[in-house]
Specification:
Rossmann fold, homodimer, 477 residues, alpha/beta
């Protein structure tokens, strides 16, 4: 079966949810609501023999009662009933069944392993493709498919193939807070039929997907996977988080998705040789997703940095140089511009710009970063949000607004790639009503709305930007 | 001058703020308010020749108008007026002057460097000790001294010597959100007189301080510093964040605190040889502060882990084993306990515990972690908060409450050291009114109130715990 035909998965005209319920604590209840909430335009057919409607949508007792064909079935019934369901599906022209149920091969139980194989055999017999079992299926906001509550309805350019359901929803939920938007996110679990190679190949050829993110625990066919990965990585950035890197992780992977995790050393070599990008951990994976989907291509290492006081400036310079960036001295013609407005600091201020020494002058971080944006000595900019000065809200807030607005203007002006750094902090419930944390939360909302890439620390920003630079240097060579 | 006498700094009977103002955007205004707000019990003397009161506190035109002696002077006037101030101080028995003003040697200007030297000379002549210049001074909540707004009024056991004012307030503000509380935090800037060695020696001998945190850009006397550092590290954990590790960072340090940053390689060797702990970056520094001040001593590497679904479990196992921990298999007697309540998963569940497979059983993460707490196979526990399940608030919230309450009970029970993992996320302003983020913020408040150590990721928790284990292993040997 050719993989190029997988586009049908993401454009169903009708979806049936078998085992649909009104139990909102179960996926069998959630999927019907998701289709309605996310605006699925085709026919929605909840299947439940005991109810006339499910959440107000007309329900059917079984597949054969549905008038016309069905493209796509979300199977929420027990695994042992799935072979019979597949037979019924074949009568209705179903092309794809997403098998939600777990407790399959990953339990390690012999009967579950045999049941999986039977399901695969029956599906092949009827020419039906399977996603799963043991997975959440598809989030594709453009057509109204979702696997979770409160995900963005706005589609984007990040496509993802993710073996873990939880990691797929975490990526969407946490990534969305950083401004990431998605074309298609596939949680595919045990990969009984359609597997990582199929989805990766599809996303590589998908014009709606510009960046590919993957979480794999194991692969079904290493040789095919490597060929597809190499081909995909030539077409667009492919960012891989590998689960099961260690003995304990591999053991957990076997009881999670029945995966053989393989040697991590081999994985690392394969990812590198294929030209893909390897994430160090979950946060790094999200950072790389933000960087590759939101940061303009950066082609050199000369960086201009603003934000924070002297100690932050010192540490910022350290972290950037440690990442291989060139924290170039402040150019003399920028000094001359500063001299006009701030004669007291013109020969003292440096790069990174220490905001605390600018007190009492008529310039701030945004002004200096704007000068850097126009200057040929810099390849890219890092604008940090000053998060504390020894002052009161009336004095501090306008300074932060000036930075936020200024950085957004630089981003929109497009003269130089810019990334913003703004901390994440462990806020308690009392902080939610405090002016300081509300100020920073408002800033984050502004960045998300303006599609400005931002990172929680300069170290994480630098690490992600470094991978962007490496990627475009590889592409250029 | 003997350093053992520095205790007078932290127990002033009277504080004069020279150059006090009602300008709330200036430290000269803030310091008076801080003394009042933080409950300083001694006499507060704002000095301002033009005003009868400052924020309602009776002001004096000059030092000599104050009845009686003054212990401690916060000098908020221009640097060039400081030599004359020191002469006036000597008339009033002042022992310590904190010189707030910057734009001193760090500007690189010859006249500023000379002025610093003159200030030092005059201070020595009158036997007055100096903190600064170019620094925020002292936060000591136990006596009512503060350098910032909204810092905890409750004292704690973390003492800190920090060359950067901004890094000192960031440590207090960010650390406080994680439950850290402080004995004394000294921002000492250019270290013209009292320097890093003096404060480190003092904190090492201070019974109120159990953990020492340091941020250094340079040291004045390397030999003395190393001896003091080695001695301090023998007495309590000393966690060092070094600024100026690179060429660019060293340059920034010279214009920040006029420091000679020195070779970072030498620093690393010195920190290691002295038995101190080296932080990798600011977040790591805070993590280590949380770990050493809040986590019970951990003496082995066998870890039990709960929280999150299968993908999170796999990655958690990986990150712990990569840090050198032993993610031991779930013991058979714990399996037997689980079998009674959850026969469907007893032979399938592992360590880490995958919360998603427990659906429909009568046990959750807190129950399994409690079993681990009582079991001799584990040296310590990591309890993660499950942050997303495909469900609705009414179903999800009680599960999170059960985890939070259960983890707190394990912490209070004291059978095993436990650290909690709960994400920080980049929340926008709309998230502040969303049930999910409020739920997690409420959990954080519960952890802070119960003094439970928590970390934003399992990788960061593992890294900090590893340093704790290493430390106690060194101590034991």
């Amino acid at each position: 079966m050719s993989n190029s035909s997988l586009d049908f998965i993401f454009h169903p005209q009708s979806v049936a949810i078998v085992g649909a319920s009104e139990n909102v604590a179960m996926l069998s209840g959630n999927y019907v609501q998701h289709l309605v909430n996310y605006g699925f335009k085709g026919n929605i057919y909840p299947i439940n023999p005991k109810r006339p409607t499910i959440f107000g949508v007309k329900a059917y007792p079984d597949l054969k009662s549905i008038p016309g064909n069905i493209d796509y079935v979300i199977d929420c019934i027990a695994l042992e009933d799935t072979p019979a369901l597949l037979a019924a599906c074949s009568q209705k022209g179903v092309q794809l069944v997403h098998v939600f149920a777990g407790r399959a091969a990953e339990t390690g139980h012999k009967d579950s392993i045999e049941l999986e194989q039977k399901i695969l055999q029956v599906a092949r017999q009827y020419g039906i493709r399977l996603i799963g079992p043991n997975c959440l299926g598809i989030y594709c906001p453009g057509v109204g498919l979702s696997t979770g509550w409160d995900f963005p309805k706005e589609p984007g350019t990040v496509g993802a193939a993710i073996q873990s359901g939880g990691n797929s929803t975490d990526l969407v939920r946490w990534g969305a807070l950083r401004g990431m938007r998605f074309s298609k996110v596939i949680s595919y679990g045990n990969a009984l039929d359609l597997n990582e190679s199929d989805f990766l190949e599809y996303l590589a050829g998908d014009p709606e997907t510009r960046v590919i993110m993957c979480y794999f625990e194991g692969v079904k066919d290493g040789r095919r996977f490597f060929d597809i990965l190499r081909s995909a990585a030539r077409q667009k950035p492919v960012i891989i988080l590998k689960g099961g890197r260690t003995r304990a992780g591999s053991k957990a992977a076997s009881t999670h998705t029945a995966s053989l995790a393989g040697s991590y050393n081999m994985w690392s070599i394969m990812i590198k040789q294929a030209g893909a990008i390897q994430a160090l951990n979950f946060d790094d994976w999200v950072d790389l997703g933000v960087a590759f989907s939101m940061v303009s291509p950066i082609k050199g290492t000369r960086v201009g940095i603003t934000g924070g006081g002297g100690g932050r400036s010192v540490l910022s310079a350290d972290e950037c140089e440690e990442m291989g960036f060139d924290v170039v001295p402040l150019p003399s013609d920028i000094r001359e511009q500063i001299r006009e407005k701030a004669p007291i600091i013109w020969d003292w201020v440096g790069n990174p710009v220490d905001v605390s020494i600018m007190r009492g002058t008529s310039i701030g971080n945004a002004e200096v970063l704007t000068m850097m944006a126009k200057h040929p000595d810099f390849d890219f900019l890092i604008g940090q949000i000053t998060e504390d000065i020894p002052s009161v809200p009336d004095d501090f807030m306008p300074k932060v607004h000036n930075e936020v607005d200024g950085y957004i203007q630089i981003f929109k002006g497009g003269l130089k790639p810019i990334v913003v750094v703004q901390s994440e902090k462990s806020l308690g419930i009392n902080e939610f009503s405090n002016w300081r944390w509300r100020l920073f939360a408002e800033a984050r909302t502004q960045f998300v709305e303006a599609k400005v890439p931002f990172f929680p620390t300069i170290g994480r920003a630098a690490r992600a930007v470094k991978e962007v630079i490496n990627y475009y240097q590889r592409k250029g060579s």
